[in-house]
Amino acid sequence: MEKQIRVGIIGLGGMGRAHAKHLRSLSGVEITAVCGQSMEKAEAFNAEHAGGTAAAYDRYEDMLEQETLDAVYVCIPPYAHRGQVEAAAKRGCAVFVEKPIALDSETAASMVLAVEQAGVLSQVGYHNRFGSAVRELKRMIDDGTAGVPTLFDGRYDCNSLHSPWWRDRSLSGGQVFEQAIHTYDLAMHLFGTPTRVSGLTGNLAHREISDYTVEDTSAAIVRFESGAMASICASNCAVPMEWNSSFTVVCSKATVYFMGPNKAEFVLTGGAEPVRRLFEEEVDVYLEENIAFIAALRGEGPELCPIGDGLASLRLVEKVMQSAELDGTMLQFE
């Protein structure tokens, strides 16, 4: 018999709504409780996005105290983390945490420790890992088909003022922390642990906006334990109201040009002549990450993106920003 999963959601903005939609589509999953900034918001969210059957709360402590939950989704901005993950883990709840999991590695390490000590499952919302083309390349790297990984070349660009909290570095961490971290995570997912990092950042096109304190341009170089390298750039000065992510991965037997997590041109170079094939299998990466998390809770699949990975990627972007403050000085990744 299918195990029933009771879920609580903390944070009822865009990501909270997205996860609620996908959770409601999964068999045997119940959104049992939701927690927002006010009872009014929580009750409205319940009515509109949770089927009208969830208990509404304005304090996560009360939700965890009064409800019996199998898992808690923490879908709040990075500045709002104040012990929600630790409290859920202490209650024995598995946790799904949106990225970045914190604004600094010290806070993130506290989350990881709480999850490990409680022995609960966890997942971070790095949805690009669940793209069909990304999964195909990961398989090829793991089984050796792609050969030796050598270079990851990634780019993220957009052009938007976003929300007021997003353009305040003290609240969001900046574009590298809040958006480009997805690309940094993919590089680590495919290439492993970094050893050295260098970064440059600047606010080149938004200086006249008084509350815009984040970078709008960044570039970083990363070396990995294997000797492989990555170059990752991000911009908030590109095409207005477009959010674009692209990356190329070069291995000794395959070069892959990604147009997104589900679409890529694979050029196999291990034979006498290059063989080109377009891989295009459309999946909803947000749905797929929820399917994977629920499967892990039921013991039907592995823990695919545990919270420790969220700490590792946070440490990487933290090093990028520290290097940028030192005008690109190469730093050791610890």
UniProtKB/TrEMBL annotation:
Q: Name one Pfam family in it.
A: GFO_IDH_MocA_C3
Top-level taxon of the source organism: Bacteria
**PANTHER family membership:** D-GLUCOSIDE 3-DEHYDROGENASE (PTHR43249:SF1), UDP-N-ACETYL-2-AMINO-2-DEOXY-D-GLUCURONATE OXIDASE (PTHR43249)
InterPro entries for the chain: Gfo/Idh/MocA-like_OxRdtase_N (IPR000683), Gfo/Idh/MocA_Oxidoreductase (IPR052515), GFO_IDH_MocA-like_dom (IPR055170), NAD(P)-bd_dom_sf (IPR036291)
Q: Which GO terms describe its molecular function?
A: nucleotide binding
> What protein name applies here?
Gfo/Idh/MocA family oxidoreductase
Domain Gfo/Idh/MocA-like oxidoreductase N-terminal residue range list: 5-126
Q: Which residues form the GFO/IDH/MocA-like oxidoreductase domain?
A: 134-256
